[in-house]
């Protein structure tokens, strides 16, 4: 017989309590890590939802509950760091270079990609160059970051979120971030770079991209 207090505490329902938002986020990340391991190891076409679920320790049904298709499973790895960077933009001191604000984000452990255990995140970005489905997920993830950056820049400047200036600045920043990540991924051998070195080299590439953006067109 179920415990009455337990039954009542869940609105009369029995069984396990619903998952917390934190646990749901963990499951999404576990599925994403499993997916990228399989995609890198055997290719996207050869990977099934059942394989992803088995590697993540969940059912295929759970995979499809969280993601509409197998390519979208990697999205949590591609959206890492968006809110942390937006927070740094809101706190960016007036009159100081933007790269200083982003350097603080990197120093605090912020990453532009959530590196899956045992498989460099850069391998996933490389796949977006040859896998159209992954490319679409990557570009959508970057596109979704832009409004967050625009809101942060607008708040910093005391402007409406739909003002042209923060929207344009956010677009430029977002393009610099995407280009820096792709350039670094495509020019750095996975087997020769550990995570700490990769982050330092990415930060340097990002600074270069921001400098180019700041100079504008010659």
From TrEMBL:
Residue ranges constituting the HTH tetR-type domain according to the UniProt record: 25-85
InterPro entries in the record: Homeodomain-like_sf, HTH-type_TetR-like_transc_reg, HTH_TetR, MftR_C
Stretch forming the signal peptide: none
Superkingdom of the source species: Bacteria
SUPFAM superfamilies registered for this protein in UniProt: Homeodomain-like
Region (Disordered): 1-22
Pfam family, one: TetR_N
Key words, A-Z: DNA-binding, Transcription, Transcription regulation
Start-end of DNA-binding region: 48-67
Protein name: TetR/AcrR family transcriptional regulator
Lineage: Bacteria, Bacillati, Actinomycetota, Actinomycetes, Streptosporangiales
